[in-house]
């Protein structure tokens, strides 16, 4: 059986014929007619040197032989001086692109009529039938080359969309970080300033200082006098059970049943709280508490008088005598008691000096506005009472 030979243009063949050629070339015959045709054409272009000599597939290269072989045939068959001059013209004009086209055209058109090898009869018949179909080949080839352009546009559209989205996303920058840090720093400074002003207004009052020092002394007395007990919770891990534990102190209820506990608290509170509060409310030299005004603005407590009385009571209270009956009654000690009281007196005296001008001015205005002339002054009434 003679081997099958394929010839003719691929565009004029049916799908079944193209599938048969693809199977003969060991290619896939799946897909549409255009896919199989492009696959065969690509394979022929890549393996042209091998398939041109194969009689089964040489008919598929009929047109390509005629377009690629004229130049070597002309050089071999016409060894005339004209060819040498033509070669010289080509070599000379290679440097000038403007004249190269004309020389190449004349050089390529002459050998077509003189030295084209005569193909087989079968190839000639196929070539005579197929000229009208040659233009579609160029159209398909151009369409194949033009098709990738929409893919490029599509890829550009796809890649441009995320870029547009990313432009709207806020990116951290050094300027933004610096602005945020400066804002946080300003807020911290503002809060610190407010805290300092609030603390200053609280600690710039002699009454508040007296209460704060008394509270600190009370906490120290409770810490020393109370027999604290603790509950220990060992670690749940066996490896650390002997070294690590949690201890929580608590106040035993038997402490409130002890007379010594209440005795120590009473002897501490009498000179520290009771005597200064009573005498500071009774004795006052503040101008607002003057009796010369018709409606005096009575202050509930004079902090300067209370501080002075506290210092005197801390110094004169008989802790040494009471220590004979109640051991350890002076928990704080004379040194710290007198020091705390002296500091309180100094701060109260400073506050009184600072507020004295405004207090005397307010008292004078109240005295002028509220005291009538016919009312007898306290000094006159006392003198009249002595004369009688």
TrEMBL record:
Coiled-coil residues: none
Signal sequence extent: none
Entry GO CC: membrane
Protein name: SAP domain-containing protein
Residue ranges, annotated region (Disordered): 61-107, 132-154, 368-388
Pfam families: SAP_new25
Source taxon at top rank: Eukaryota
The entry's keywords: Membrane, Transmembrane, Transmembrane helix
TM annotation in the entry: 207-226, 259-285
InterPro entries listed in its UniProt record: Put_GTT3
